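Before going further, learn to read the protein records used in this course. A complete example follows; check for yourself that the lines match position by position.
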Amino acid sequence: MTFERTRLVFAREVRDQLRDRRTLFMIFVVPLLLYPLLGVGFFQMAQFMREKPSRVLVVGVRELDRAPRLFDEDGFDAGLFVSEDGVNLLEVTFAPSSRRSGRPEPAESREAAWRAVESGSYDAALYFPPNFAQQLDAFRQVLRNRQSPDHRAGGVNAPDDASLEVNLAVPSPEIVHSTAVETSQIAYARLAAVLRRWTDQVGDDNLAVGGLPPSAARPFSLHSADVAYETPQRGAARWSKILPLMLVLWAMTGAFYPAVDLCAGEKERGTMETLLCSPALRSEIVMGKLLTIMLFSAATALLNVLSVGLTGAVVLSQIEGFGAPPLYAVFWLGAALLPVAALFSALCLALAAFARSTKEGQYYLMPLMFITMPLSVLPMAPGVELTLGNALIPVTGMVLLLRSVLEGHYWQAFQFAPPVIAVTFTCCLLAVRWAVEQFNSEGVLFGESERFDLAAWLKRLVRNRRPTPTAAAAVACGVLILLARFFLGTTLETPGAFPAFVRSVLITQVVIIAGPALLLCLLLTSSPRQTLLLRRPVTWWTVPAAGLLALLLHPTMNVLQRVVMHLYPVSENMREALVPVERMFAEAPFWPLVLVIALVPAVCEELAFRGFMLTGFLRPGGKWRAIAYTAVFFGLAHGVLQQSLIACLVGVVIGFIAIQSGSLVPAVVYHFLNNGLAVAGSRITPDTLDRFPALAAMLSGGPAQGYAFHGQIVTAGVFAACVLLVWFARLSSTRSFEMTFCGTVPRRLAEEG
């Protein structure tokens, strides 16, 4: 690849994009006009955003004989709840008998208040129980009696504590509202504020009656001091959540539309063939287009962020506690702009290569948006901070890193900047490689669009069945398993006993995981035995080698599990939910537990993932891609995040064993021993170590914090496992492919075996 050819392709693509007025308008004009117009519109609409009074019905008591007053002639006392402009925001209507302090009528019942709110006649209702005023007066009288000389001297007329507790019970008023109506929720908030202030005044009067000052209940008040009020960090916490999110979303949006035009647009214009016939290599063409998309992506994101910052400095800075965006945010956002633009440009270029038309290319934005949005919004959730585990999540780590530097936490950002940069750089390389592969595929670039007929497609799929499934069938199987796991798995109750747990595992493994794979295998393939790799391995030595590999890698998997639990700790709610399950495991018999947790998943999951799905993804030259795809689906099938990460790593090893051996038997053996060793490890107790001194010499820790293997054992296991993996890698890959795709082994290879 030469720089000169890449430069020529880059100059050509930039020139073509600059000739498009719509592109220039969307990238340069819209960001400069959109947010200032929104700011002007905000001020124009502010005059229409007046708070409207809430309609409130008071049921029960209107007049209270003693201070402090709750009502005046027009409604609530003006000093309890009045808006800033002096307008009372509560329109009060009294029930007919509420204007008398006497006995309430039947119409003043609690049901009447409910009917008034349910019918929509009032936004809320305030209901006072019968004899509320009398009970409140009795309450104060009790307080006065406690201050009498007889009570202090313990005389005959002094009331006892039991009678005091009875007399001190005052029925509580009730606010009737509806959470289904927004105006009712607003009325509830206003009424709650009124009653809270009135209750405080009543409490102050009661303290005075009891001979105590009001400060006895509130001896001090709380004041706050904002150290960032007069500094550039004022309002940085809010801007640190807005600006990084906008940078990511606009970098993705700015990259997608030029990518669609440079790929699908060129196909429609008929200029793609001319470009491919030039002396430039496919990689040079991809790099030229990639640099063009990066340029427009960076320009779109930069202009939008600057426009938001300038508009916010004028408009949002007038809001209390918000402030203008800090000036140093320009430097940090500019530093993150290049890797973010490179990542999304490569992804959009690879996706746009699939599109056969500009209209079809527009549809590919939604899947990318569905993946990017959760990763971008996750840092805005409460309690999500920049940790090592979060730094390893693509996009999320970058947004959290930007949030830390914008908030002024430079040391925290410096600690986690290397993993964030490494993850982002790796994702960029993989995305660029994917884009190059798409341009090297003639089927992707020049595939003709065709009318989709579901009935004809199903007939052709069944009639023209091949020995092994296609990649689309493998993806369909994986998606079907995940959907069944989600919908059917949620209907299964958490087992409280071991028999119920056995039924739950059997239903999950046989019906949800193995069932779809076996059904698709019978419908879509002509050779289930070949599809599921149900044949003898290349050499039978792979079976004990797979079992030995599981033993050697068990200490390493134990360490990785501890690392994952440290990076992504289990929440307290989940930890409490797992306590009954752990207790059930501890009380269950050992060998039945091994059969349920180790043997059943080893057979069912291997039939689905390393059987049907692996052969569907597997094509000559694409071994590692098939292993990776299958491992990802295998990890997603495990519901818990921590378990999914470990399962993904285990899936890579099992997939490699299945391909190199050409059989499912070694994969089942490895899977069975991997799960069985985990079950055995959970049963280790001090008595077990006393019976097996050799095992005690390999472990450290205790029952409370768990047992862990010594570092020497882990290192030795990794070294020996690498030797076994090299031995697996030296097995004839050609022979494995022959067994997978042809169903038979050539006579010469069979004789060598």
